[in-house]
């Protein structure tokens, strides 16, 4: 069922509408909300939600004979409507990041009204997914981010087939983000980080599409054939994070691929001086572990994040902040 | 004495630094240290000129009458120099708001390191004045904004600052990552000045604030000027959230303010401006004031969305016998960031 959750007048043209597409099951299963397109350049998540919409539509029409919908699935695929239309990450008029405007305010500025509308439209959920991608500068393998997950969260998370789970603490840095307010409202928030901005990774979307169907089966939203056995993803927090920072500035050429398991000291790439062409720095893994993400935009400043690596052993420096600008 | 608190090499064979200038008394132990910061947002220029004026004034004073300059003043006029040079409010390339990165981190991207370096460098200061302009949308009369938890310590200082208004607002966790909150939290009094408009200069505002900062420096005994030499201060009106009336656009279109409403006393029923529709040739909204008050914020950027902040009024103090007025926004938990300032306008 298509329904507007928010309508805003846009100067000099037609009003903007944020739609939800809601599928209501016959039973009294839980309510799951999925949002994407908060950032206008993160397309994989929007495509993922459109795949789910097509699937649920088939379920509703009896074209997926093995599945019935017990609960309710609410899809809000595009939040930053003009951002999607203009291919900009932020709100195009004033450059604000909608995911820094929560909880929002219904009498406030445009992006605050949007934030308020999205939170209101999802706050009755049992499970809520905020689907994002990485930006273009950083390639990340798909993963799940959660605030202090409960046991039930950890039971369900493995169905999603994410490569790893990043545990975050509820710090002030996140207070203006949607997922923080979900958590505060007693909803289990799942932040899906899905591919790189501005393009669609079909394999990734397919994996997560199957993963979300399995998640809904495991959560009782959907009835159907038993889900694939859950893949227990490794889970990392602040203490297991290594941030690799550049020591030189110049052109970074990676030699390792995100997703690889690296040994301590293994090459990650090199930084070349643009003027002399000399290798200024050989970047090496600071520990053995999973190379979760690596810089894809080639030019780097000194002391910039080149890679993020997770280790099983605790990082003795331990203070590394897992936060950075994406999502 | 020019110093660099952080230097970063950039890919194209160049580098930038966060630079400060330290003015210190010629001899003897310094009495106290004040720091004046500006340019954290790259589209805010009012503080740069204020620092220029104060810097020049203090250098002259130190030269001609060294005995009255007894402390230390540190200037950090262009913290986000990359943003300033490219008219970016945020930190270019990384596209983050520097004033949401505090306390920063030594291990992090460049803006986090910049925040860390600045905060570290300000430790030991006896007073920090962080000068912001508004964003490019709104023109503001000179004001100091503070969270009420810090008001007991900050209010006496703010009253000496020669601003028109001191706005004490509800404490907000959203401001936890600003420079001022981090300083105040660690016991260093930090005043946040907000005046003028983004991307422009209002030299008279800088001159007005200069007089206030001179008073503050005397208060800290950094300057030892005789009372009769001190500029006469205007006492600011101290306001709470419930004394501010917000005008938000009820339509999307082109906002055209009435002439001479900014900084003026407005009467109930006065027209402040209108939102017009060029296509139909009609007025979408005629904005009239429901109350008397001083118009201290006015939108300068004419394109408005429904909800855009158009103006703010500080209400005339209510008559004693009048019942407490019902304010549209008084009960809201987000009063100061109400107008999207969290991300755009506010410090
Ligand atoms: Zn995102």
Automatic annotation (TrEMBL), chain A:
Instruction: Determine if Metal-binding is one of this entry's keywords.
Output: yes
Instruction: Output one GO MF annotation.
Output: hydrolase activity, acting on ester bonds
Keywords from UniProt, A to Z, are: Hydrolase, Metal-binding, Zinc
Cross-referenced InterPro entries, in alphabetical order? Answer: AstE_AspA_cat (IPR055438), N-alpha-Ac-DABA_deacetylase (IPR053138)
Pfam families from the UniProt entry: AstE_AspA_cat (PF24827)
**Span of domain Succinylglutamate desuccinylase/Aspartoacylase catalytic:** 29-138
Keyword NADP annotated: no
So which cofactors does this thing need? Zn(2+)
User: Transmembrane ranges?
Assistant: none
Supply the PANTHER family for this chain: BLL3975 PROTEIN
Name listed for the protein in its UniProt record: Succinylglutamate desuccinylase/Aspartoacylase catalytic domain-containing protein
> Lineage in the entry?
Bacteria, Bacillati, Bacillota, Clostridia, Eubacteriales
Automatic annotation (TrEMBL), chain B:
Report the InterPro entries cross-referenced here. AstE_AspA_cat, N-alpha-Ac-DABA_deacetylase
Domain Succinylglutamate desuccinylase/Aspartoacylase catalytic per the UniProt entry, residue ranges: 33-219
Which key words tag this protein in UniProt? Hydrolase, Metal-binding, Zinc
Which cofactors are required for activity? Zn(2+)
Q: Which domain of life is it from?
A: Bacteria
Keyword Cytoplasm applies: no
SUPFAM superfamilies listed in its UniProt record: Zn-dependent exopeptidases
- A Gene Ontology molecular function term of the record: hydrolase activity, acting on ester bonds
Q: Which PANTHER family match?
A: BLL3975 PROTEIN
Q: What is the protein name given in its UniProt record?
A: Succinylglutamate desuccinylase
Per the UniProt record, the lineage of the source organism begins with:
Bacteria, Bacillati, Bacillota, Clostridia, Eubacteriales
């Amino acid at each position: 069922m298509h329904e507007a959750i928010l309508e805003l007048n846009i100067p000099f043209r037609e009003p903007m509408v944020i739609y939800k597409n809601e599928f209501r099951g016959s039973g009294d299963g839980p309510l799951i909300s999925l949002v994407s397109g908060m950032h206008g350049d993160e397309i994989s998540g929007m495509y993922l939600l459109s795949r789910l919409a097509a699937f649920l539509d088939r379920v509703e029409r009896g074209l997926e004979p093995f599945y019935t919908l017990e609960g309710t699935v609410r899809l809000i695929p595009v939040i930053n409507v003009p951002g999607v239309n203009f291919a900009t990450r932020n709100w195009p008029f004033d450059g604000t990041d909608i995911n820094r405007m929560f909880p929002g305010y219904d009498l406030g500025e445009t992006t605050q009204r949007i934030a308020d509308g999205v939170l209101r439209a999802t706050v009755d959920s049992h499970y809520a997914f905020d689907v994002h991608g990485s930006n273009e500068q950083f390639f990340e393998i798909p993963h799940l981010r959660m605030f202090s997950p409960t046991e039930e969260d950890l039971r369900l998370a493995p169905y999603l087939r994410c490569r790893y789970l990043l545990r975050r603490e509820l710090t002030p840095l996140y207070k203006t983000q949607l997922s923080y307010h979900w958590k505060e409202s007693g909803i289990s928030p799942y932040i899906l980080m899905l591919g790189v901005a501005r393009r669609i990774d079909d394999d990734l979307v397919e994996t997560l599409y199957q993963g979300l169907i399995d998640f809904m089966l495991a959560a009782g939203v959907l009835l159907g054939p038993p889900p694939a056995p859950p893949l227990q993803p490794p889970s990392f927090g602040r203490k297991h994070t290594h941030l690799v920072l550049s020591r030189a500035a110049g052109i970074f050429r990676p030699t390792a691929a995100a997703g690889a398991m690296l040994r301590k000291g293994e090459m990650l790439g090199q930084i070349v001086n643009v003027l002399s062409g000399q290798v200024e720095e050989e970047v090496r893994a600071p520990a053995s572990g999973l190379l979760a993400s690596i810089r894809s935009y080639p030019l780097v400043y000194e002391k910039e994040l080149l890679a993020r690596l997770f280790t099983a052993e605790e990082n003795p420096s331990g203070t590394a902040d897992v936060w950075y600008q994406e999502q | 004495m020019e110093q660099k608190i952080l230097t970063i090499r950039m890919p194209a064979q160049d580098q930038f630094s966060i630079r400060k200038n330290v003015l210190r008394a010629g001899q003897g132990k310094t009495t106290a240290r004040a720091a004046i910061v500006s340019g954290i947002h790259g589209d805010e220029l009012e503080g740069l000129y204020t620092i220029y004026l104060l810097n020049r004034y203090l250098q002259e004073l130190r030269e001609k009458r060294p005995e009255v300059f007894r402390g230390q003043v540190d200037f950090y006029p262009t913290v986000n120099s990359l943003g300033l040079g490219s008219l970016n409010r945020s930190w270019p390339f990384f596209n983050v708001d520097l004033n949401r990165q505090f306390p920063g981190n030594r291990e992090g991207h460049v803006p986090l390191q910049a925040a860390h370096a600045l905060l570290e460098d300000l430790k030991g200061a006896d007073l920090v004045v962080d000068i912001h302009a508004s964003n490019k949308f709104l023109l503001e009369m000179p004001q100091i904004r503070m969270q009420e938890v810090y008001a007991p310590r900050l209010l006496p200082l703010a009253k000496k600052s020669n601003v028109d208004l001191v706005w004490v607002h509800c404490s907000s966790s959203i401001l936890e990552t600003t420079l001022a909150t981090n300083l105040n939290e660690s016991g260093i009094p930090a005043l946040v000045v907000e005046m003028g408009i983004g991307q422009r200069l209002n030299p008279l505002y800088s001159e007005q604030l200069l007089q206030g900062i001179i008073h503050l420096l005397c208060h800290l005994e950094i300057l030892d000027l005789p009372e009769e030499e001190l500029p006469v201060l205007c006492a600011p009106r101290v306001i709470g959230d419930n004394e501010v009336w917000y005008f938000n656009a009820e339509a999307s279109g082109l906002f055209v303010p009435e002439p001479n409403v900014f900084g003026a006393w407005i009467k109930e029923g006065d027209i402040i401006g209108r939102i017009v529709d060029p296509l139909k040739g009609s007025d979408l909204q005629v904005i009239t004031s429901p109350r008397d008050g001083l118009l201290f914020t006015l939108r300068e950027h004419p394109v408005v969305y429904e909800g855009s902040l158009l103006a703010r009024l500080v209400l005339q103090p209510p008559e004693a016998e009048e019942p407490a007025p019902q304010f549209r926004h008084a009960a809201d938990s987000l009063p100061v960031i109400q107008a999207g300032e969290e991300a755009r306008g506010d410090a």
